[in-house]
Automatic annotation (TrEMBL):
InterPro entries from the UniProt entry: Antitoxin_Phd/YefM, YefM-like_sf
Lineage of origin: Bacteria, Pseudomonadati, Pseudomonadota, Gammaproteobacteria, Oceanospirillales
Protein name: Antitoxin
Highest taxon in the source lineage: Bacteria
Transmembrane segments: none
Length: 69
């Protein structure tokens, strides 16, 4: 068995004979990827994100403080 560090493994594609290649990533990276896929699967979310980006670029934002309890 070959032993390599995580740093080496994350830049490696694991090739399988059947063509089903694999990659290694942290659980945090995987969870972030899944969340982004979920958010981007909704046309309403995409529209809202694009509108928000346009507002930021146009300087149409305002700073709000935290709510005091």
């Amino acid at each position: 068995m070959n032993v390599i560090s995580y740093s080496e493994a994350r830049h490696t594609i694991i090739h399988r004979r059947d063509g089903d290649d694999a990659v290694v990533m942290s659980l945090e990276s995987y969870n972030n990827l899944m969340e982004n896929l979920h958010l981007m699967s909704s046309p309403n979310n995409i529209r809202h994100i694009n509108e928000s980006i346009a507002q930021i670029k146009a300087g149409q934002t305002e700073e709000k403080g935290l709510i005091d309890e």
